[in-house]
Design brief:
261 residues; mainly alpha; two-stranded antiparallel sheet; flat
């Protein structure tokens, strides 16, 4: 809620600063937990370096100690932990113990200046002319002399016979069905007038529904896809069929309907 008293400026009150923080510990005292200046041989000024060096035991591994038993000259040499002595191990490696090729020595020089007087084009042509062509290998089987050469396999005759029997059975069944349909007289009944009127009304309703969908696409002169063309042609065929059915039911005279057997 707005008030006119809010427009009156309030007097500025300067905040009071808290007293400066002073630690209760001596700032010049060495830090007992500091590791600064521990690594190396030069002691840095400040920190608890001197105190830590007093607790620097022989078990530490960072840098040598005064009582270290390892000498700088006693380093691990190649082949010192192998079963063979170093001399035999080096000779074994030079004699082909490694799968890698030997590195060429400094005094080794590549062979240079080698030339040949052979004409490879002429040599290849002469070799191709004088070479004997390879004859096809004969496995010893003469298919012409076989007993069934040139004859129809027996299994093909069996398959043809099975197909002939199946076709005869199908023809006999169809012939019997057609004979029964020809012998039975076809019966017709007159369609009721009310049923004919109901069918005409339903066909007209269906025609209106199809025509409404057809009118949405019949005015188009270009179609983007084959689906649109098929849809238009399908609606035209459906409208034509409905019109023929309506004309058939509306013609003068009675409508005869065949009874389903």
């Amino acid at each position: 809620m707005e008030s006119i008293y809010n427009l009156v400026p309030e007097p500025y009150v300067e905040p009071q600063k808290p007293p400066m923080y002073r630690s209760k510990y001596d700032p010049n005292a060495p830090l007992t937990s500091s590791t600064f200046g521990l690594h190396g041989t030069t002691a840095t000024v400040g920190g608890g370096v001197n105190e830590i060096r007093k607790n620097h035991t022989l078990s530490s591994t960072f840098g040598p100690t005064s009582q270290s038993t390892t000498s700088a000259a006693n380093f691990l040499k190649a082949g010192s932990k192998t079963r063979l002595p170093p001399q035999q191990a080096s000779s074994f490696m030079r004699s082909g113990g490694s799968s890698k090729p030997l590195v060429p020595r400094r005094e080794d020089k590549p062979v240079m200046g080698l030339r040949t007087s052979k004409n490879f084009i002429t040599a290849n042509a002469v070799e191709a002319i004088l070479s004997v062509p390879q004859m096809p290998q004969n496995d010893g089987v003469d298919y012409i002399s076989k007993e069934d050469y040139g004859k129809v396999p027996e299994y093909l005759s069996q398959v043809k016979e099975e197909i002939r029997r199946e076709n005869d059975m199908i023809d006999e069944y169809v012939r019997k069905q057609l004979a029964q349909d020809e012998d039975a007289p076809e019966e017709f009944t007159e369609m009721e007038e009310q049923l004919r009127i109901d069918l005409i009304n339903k066909l007209k309703t269906k025609w209106d529904d199809v025509n409404e969908k057809y009118q949405k696409i019949c005015h188009r002169t270009s179609f983007e896809s084959f689906g649109d063309i098929a849809f238009k042609e399908g609606k035209e065929r459906e409208l034509k069929k409905l019109e023929n059915d309506i004309m058939l039911l509306q013609r003068a005279g009675s409508v005869m309907v065949s009874e389903d057997r």
